[in-house]
Structures are given as structure tokens and as C-alpha cells.
């Protein structure tokens, strides 16, 4: 990636962007380079539409510190990650201005709903524009990846594949769109089973897994085959094939993490019951499958015609607090700054 220093600094260095979480159908778990957030495996995801992060970034010449507000509050740990991400953008632009960042999610943060993916995709998209950097979407995806791996995928909409790449500097570990959301507009029901922040974050979970799980090499060795099946299923709009491979990848990732020491158990009882309900529906002929990330929420991906039935079935599971409903959406994009606080 080349970053041309900004030469025409004039006016307010401010921009706002929106990005949505993505949900991996073929999971990313494990880093080949923790500093650069390079994955040991490729992954494939869908970008959602009605859950979002909206972020307003304003660089202030002469300001030393960044000021960060997340959902109207300050959060020291997140502010540090945001400053590291802003540092990448400042290095690209050749400036040292502090920034004021206001960011808001319309869904629970850090509970396995990929808030870091939408958060860093929105931050990179807005920050790059605020500094007048002329970055392609792929270049933005590379920067977003360095802040949070899966954020690389939220720069793009629809069905997105992120390659693990082989190069040490990660130049070939880029996300690319595979198919537009309108080309196969699946729906997703998200069963919220807890709003508590997860106890073990994905970075620590991946580190522990790589160091202690006996299944790590099998995970890496079998990923390319899974990606190929999923890619073909998406391009052929073959729901059953996508259902089989997605549940397989999800359960394989959790089996890998469960076998770490100490084991990573991201599910609660309602998570498991939701998975059973989804499988029962599919056995009755309803086109639906589940996937679960590093948290207790269950995402049920289904054909548009099945969404009401899927939502009703999940709502009925004891321990399910709420069921959200979303389609597939676009990638990161510019918005008016007043939408962030609205
Ligand atoms: O990008 P991170 O560090 O939030 O890790 C994401 C890991 C999973 O959500 C479990 C899988 C994935 O591919 O998104």
C-alpha cells in the first residue's frame, strides 16, 4: 500500500462513516502474525445491513491527545485501540494531529456481534477521508485488518472473502467482495442470549488456542477445502451446500477452541438450544442454518421466506432475550456527521 502525504490541508479535517458487522460463515481463528493481524486461515463472511456502527472523526491540528467517545461514554481499553488505528492513518498522511472520535453502535458491543469489525471499518473509512487520503477499498481493508482482523471484511458488502496470504508484510492478505448482497439476499435472525461483554476476547482466545489446542494443525490443513466448497455454494446460490459447510466450519472452530487449555467455552445453554432449534427447523424443510462466533449469540441465516418462522422459533427458546433481524448490506460508506449522534 502506498500512502501519499496530504498536501492540500484546508478546511475542517472531518468525516463520518457507517459500516456494518460481518458474520463469518467460514471462520477466521488464529493469527500467523499477531502484530500485523495476519490470519493463519482464509475466511468468508456476509456483511449485515441493519446493525451498524456510525463514527465521526475530526482531526485537530495542534491537539496532542485523541478524545474518544463510544456510545456516549469513554472506554480506556477501546480508546487505546482506536489511537493505534488512528496512528496508522496519521502515518499515511504524515501528520501528528490528535483526533476527536465519536462512535455509536445500534447493537451490543463486544458480545460476539462483531462490533470491532464494524467499528474499525467505520473508523478507517472516516479517518482516511478526514485526512484526505486517497485509499482504495482494498487499501482501507488492509488498514482495518491491522486494527481488528475481521474488520478487513466489513469494508465490503455482501459476500466477502479474506485471503490469509503468504507474504510476511501481509500485502496479499486482503479481503475482496465475492458476490453482492442483492445477488443472493439471504436474511439473518440474531438470537441475543446475553448482553455481557465476553470474558476472553478473540485475540487472547486465538493465542491460547494456537499454543495449546491439539487440533490447530488440522484446522489450518482443512480450511482451503472449506473455503472452496463455500465459494462454490455462494456462486451457485446453493443454500443446502452453504448450510452444511457453514455449520461445519462454525462447529470446527468451536471444537478447536474448546480443546485449548483452559478451554474456551463461548456458549451458554440458550446458545446450544438455539442451535438445536435451527437444526430441527432445517429437518422440517425450512432453509436455515446457524453460525456462532466468539460469544453466545446465535446467528440463523435463512432464505427471506423463512425469516418470520425462524424468528418465532428462536424467540421461543428459554434464555433468548431478543431476536434481531437483518438482511445483507453494503460495505463502509460516507454518512452525514449528524447521523452519528441522531
Ligand atoms: O477479528 P476478531 O479479532 O474480532 O476475530 C473474529 C473471530 C470470529 O468472529 C470468531 C471469526 C470470524 O471470522 O469473524
UniProtKB/TrEMBL annotation:
Entry-linked Pfam families: MDD_C, MVD-like_N
Key words of the record: ATP-binding, Lipid biosynthesis, Lipid metabolism, Lyase, Nucleotide-binding
Signal sequence annotation: none
Highest taxon above the source species: Bacteria
Coiled-coil ranges per UniProt: none
EC id: 4.1.1.33
Keyword presence, tRNA processing: no
Keyword Transmembrane attributed: no
Family of the protein in this entry: Belongs to the diphosphomevalonate decarboxylase family.
Name listed for the protein in its UniProt record: diphosphomevalonate decarboxylase
Native organism: Dyella acidisoli
Amino acid at each position: 500500500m502506498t500512502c501519499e502525504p496530504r498536501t492540500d490541508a484546508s478546511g475542517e479535517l472531518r468525516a463520518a462513516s457507517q459500516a456494518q458487522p460481518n458474520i463469518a460463515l467460514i471462520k477466521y481463528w488464529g493469527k500467523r502474525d499477531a502484530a500485523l493481524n495476519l490470519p493463519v486461515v482464509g475466511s468468508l463472511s456476509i456483511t449485515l445491513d441493519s446493525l451498524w456502527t456510525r463514527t465521526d472523526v475530526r482531526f485537530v491540528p495542534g491537539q496532542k491527545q485523541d478524545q474518544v467517545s463510544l456510545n456516549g461514554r469513554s472506554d480506556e481499553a477501546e480508546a487505546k485501540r482506536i489511537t493505534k488505528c488512528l496512528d496508522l492513518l496519521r502515518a499515511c498522511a504524515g501528520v501528528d494531529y490528535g483526533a476527536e472520535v465519536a462512535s455509536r453502535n445500534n447493537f451490543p458491543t463486544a458480545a460476539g456481534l462483531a462490533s470491532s469489525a464494524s467499528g474499525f471499518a467505520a473508523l478507517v473509512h472516516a479517518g482516511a477521508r478526514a485526512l484526505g487520503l486517497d485509499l482504495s477499498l482494498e487499501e482501507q481493508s488492509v488498514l482495518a485488518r491491522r486494527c481488528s482482523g475481521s474488520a478487513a471484511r466489513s469494508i465490503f458488502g455482501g459476500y466477502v472473502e479474506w485471503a490469509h496470504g503468504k507474504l510476511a508484510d501481509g500485502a496479499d492478505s486482503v479481503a475482496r467482495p465475492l458476490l453482492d448482497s442483492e445477488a443472493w439476499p439471504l436474511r439473518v435472525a440474531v438470537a441475543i442470549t446475553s448482553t455481557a461483554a465476553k470474558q476472553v476476547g478473540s485475540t487472547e482466545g486465538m493465542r491460547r488456542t494456537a499454543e495449546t489446542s491439539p487440533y490447530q494443525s488440522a484446522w489450518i490443513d482443512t480450511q482451503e477445502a472449506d473455503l472452496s466448497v463455500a465459494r462454490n455454494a455462494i456462486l451457485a446460490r446453493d443454500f443446502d451446500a452453504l448450510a452444511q459447510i457453514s455449520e461445519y466450519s462454525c462447529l470446527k472452530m468451536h471444537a478447536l477452541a474448546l480443546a485449548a487449555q483452559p478451554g474456551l467455552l463461548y456458549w451458554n445453554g440458550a446458545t446450544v438450544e438455539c442451535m438445536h432449534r435451527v437444526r430441527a427447523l432445517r429437518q422440517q424443510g425450512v432453509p436455515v442454518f446457524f453460525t456462532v462466533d466468539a460469544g453466545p449469540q446465535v446467528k440463523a441465516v435463512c432464505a427471506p421466506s423463512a425469516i418470520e418462522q425462524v424468528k418465532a422459533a428462536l424467540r421461543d427458546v428459554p434464555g433468548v432475550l431478543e431476536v434481531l433481524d437483518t438482511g445483507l448490506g453494503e460495505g463502509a460508506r460516507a454518512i452525514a456527521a449528524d447521523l452519528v449522534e441522531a
